[in-house]
Amino acid sequence: MGEVKTIHPYVTKTVEILNGEPIIKETRISVRSVVQYVLKYGMTPEEFTKEFSNIELAAIYDALSYYYDNKDEIDLLIEENKEDKWKGTFKENT
User: Which residues, at least 6 apart from 60, have a Cβ–Cβ distance to it below 8 Å?
Assistant: First the structure.
């Protein structure tokens, strides 16, 4: 019996937005951002929807579900987007 793939109705990828990074549909909010706010910084999904009122609570939970289904992918994106990773790429004009 093959592996059953979970459907994530609120998550999509398109190369035109964030270079194909998984986002909440019809937004520019990445799954990576949801994971960082909720799991890393302790914001509740309800607080997240108050800050970003155009996002449904179900979309936040779906983004978190997507994270657990694709943890390696999202953890890599988090690592690649840490400030210390890109900070040195911009040089001051002197």
Answer: 24, 34, 38, 45, 48, 49
Answer yes or no: is 6 within a domain.
no
Going from the C-alpha of 33 to that of each of 3, 47, 75, 87, the distances in angstroms are 28, 14, 11, 18
Query: Residue 11 in contact with residue 22, Cβ under 8 Å?
Result: yes
69: domain CATH number is 1.10.10.10
pLDDT tens digit sequence for 12-66:
999 999 999 999 999 999 999 999 999 999 999 999 999 999 999 999 999 999 9
**Number of domains making up the chain:** 1
| 3 token code pair | 């592996």
Is residue 18 a part of any domain in this protein? yes
